[in-house]
Write a structure and sequence with these properties.
5-stranded mixed β-sheet, 2 domains, 40% strand, Lipocalin, 8-stranded antiparallel β-sheet, 24% helix, single chain
Length: 233
């Protein structure tokens, strides 16, 4: 009887060791086939909104994402961000991504876009860092005394130099492509600043107000302010 117990105990130990070895082998195989992935957070941007438009009956399968960048980035960086977002949203046929800079309003005038339609298309709408530097350099080149230099980001991505010559007021507007225009302005003093109207009348009713705080406000023909620009100098 004692021998039988010894034999049974030995068999149990062997079986236990064999099971442990099998479990270890199984865990190792799982680790080899399913490696752990580390998600690296990207602090260069944050998602402001994400809206899907999916309607199988009409064949619509799309998602729009609005991004706020911490600062202007290169085209390669935009591609990297776009591909990262696309990799986790493969169920959509189309993925449209809009990029805004800090303090820009969403829904209008994005600084850049990376749209998967379905292939990736990258479009930098506003000036790059290098282009902005050139714009601001050219803005200083005027024939007169500078009152203020401004940069508008949302709608025009352009520079606006208000200056005076021979007791007349002018605005020099610089554009992303390097071109510029000079317009003589009619000046009218208001309680909150100075109203500047285009003298040539080709502005479709748009005008500026240069406030006492040094802000250049943009108004449409309905007298509604639609954007503003702070002094760069």
């Amino acid at each position: 009887m004692r021998k039988i117990l010894i034999i049974l105990t030995g068999l149990l130990i062997v079986a236990s060791c064999k099971q442990s070895a099998n479990n270890a082998t199984s865990r190792q195989a799982q680790a080899e086939t399913k490696p752990e992935t580390t998600i690296v957070k990207d602090s260069s941007y944050r998602i402001l909104s994400e809206k899907e438009n999916v309607n199988p009956s009409s064949g619509i399968n799309k998602c729009n994402i609005e991004i706020e960048l911490k600062e202007k980035v290169s085209k390669d960086k935009l591609i990297s961000i776009a591909n990262k977002l696309r990799s986790t949203r493969t169920s959509y046929d189309f993925l449209w991504i809009f990029y805004y800079l800090p303090n820009m309003k969403t829904g209008i005038g994005a600084w850049a876009t990376t749209h998967f339609t379905p292939q990736l298309q990258v479009n930098i709408l506003g000036p790059t860092t290098e282009e902005e530097t050139k714009l601001k350099t050219n803005a200083k080149i005027v024939d007169g005394n500078i009152i203020g230099e401004f940069f508008e980001t949302q709608y025009t991505s352009g520079t606006y130099t208000v200056y005076e010559k021979n007791k007349k007021i002018f605005i020099k507007i610089g554009f992303k492509d390097g071109s510029s225009s000079i317009n003589e302005m009619a000046k009218k003093e208001l309680k909150n600043g100075t109203k500047l109207n285009y003298k040539n009348g080709d502005s479709n009713g748009e005008y500026f107000i240069l406030t006492e705080k040094g802000i250049l406000e943009f108004y449409n023909s309905e007298n509604k302010m639609f954007t503003s620009a702070s002094k760069t100098k």
